[in-house]
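To the structural biology subgroup,

Please find below the input and predicted structure for Adiponectin receptor protein 1-like, which we are adding to the shared reference set this quarter. The sequence is reproduced verbatim from the submission form. If anyone notices a discrepancy with their own records, reply to this email rather than editing the shared folder directly, so we keep one authoritative version.
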Amino acid sequence: MYVQFVLFFYLFNVKHSLADLFFGILNGKSKQFSNVSPVILLRDSVLLGSLFWKTIIETILLTQVKSLKVWCRISTLQTHWKVIPFEMLPSWVKDNNFLHNGHRPPMPSFQACFRSIFLIHTETVNIWTHLIGFIVILVLGINYMFIPEINFVNPFQEKLAISLLFVGTGLCFLFSFMFHTFICHSERVSRIFNKLDYYGIAFMIVGCFLPWLYYSLYCSPVPQLLYLVVSCILGITTIAVSQQDYFSKPRSRPLRAGLFLCFALGSVVPVVHVALVEGFFKAMTVGQLGWLCVMAICFLTGVVLYACRIPERFFPGRFDIWFHSHQIFHMLVVAGAVVHLHGISQLQEFRSSPEGGCNADAVL
Ligand SMILES: [Zn+2]
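Predicted structure (tokenized):
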């Protein structure tokens, strides 16, 4: 590669045509280069261009080889442990008996748990789906906060409402990533991160629902405030219930799914309210209820699969590493969050459009 750099500069300096033309133009002496042959110019341009792109491609390839070496080094650091079958797991980490093999053994070291995210086991996809989801939400959230204020009717309130969506969803993904990474540490640490994971789910439901309430009942402040307060109370109640130790036991799986489902379904009342006042068609299109429904379908499907442990229930041991219910649940949650984000950004655009003003008999 260094040889190419040398060649690049040799060509640039010795072949006077291009170099002289370039510096000549810089110095305002382009007239004296009018006698440079166009054929020489073309030849030198092609040579320089091909050398430039070859150098760029080789630099990228070299970086990839270096990354691969770092990856291999990280992976070989953890060869002192091997994945174990479900029966060998201690009771505090036993959760899904349809996943027969590929479990991490208990590793009472945060460093070892973190390094394990680069290896293949039952939690790998759970970890990466929400880590990638967190990074995407973080980037989109930062980007959203820098949208010029001229695009908003009420910049402070609107940015605050939308930031709740980013914060709620981002915290859910971050806590989930941490839980799945450190669940194998020890009973105490796993219990702490398990509760943090439930916090995250409650934050996400509240964070998704509040911006929708804010925009959908924008012209009707009293019901808007009422629903906002009720949603917050439901969120706090869910967090309080989920902190009980029995809640995180494997046998409480239907209870967990049911509680978060009831909490999410609490949003049906304001949705029906908006649909009745604005009419079904306007609520579905302008009010973005269509996207809210798509998000609800993603979440509901994910929760049902998670609670019933489908598909591994029907093929025990076949979905240990890829596509077991928890992974599908994670993917559907990320998809639902992205869909909802799209719906909220559409609502925000409508609010700042000429038709977005408030009428006397409208809530939207
Ligand atoms: Zn999870």
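Summary notes: Residues 2-76 form one domain. Residues 176 and 197 are 5 Å apart (CA to CA).

Regards,
Lab coordination
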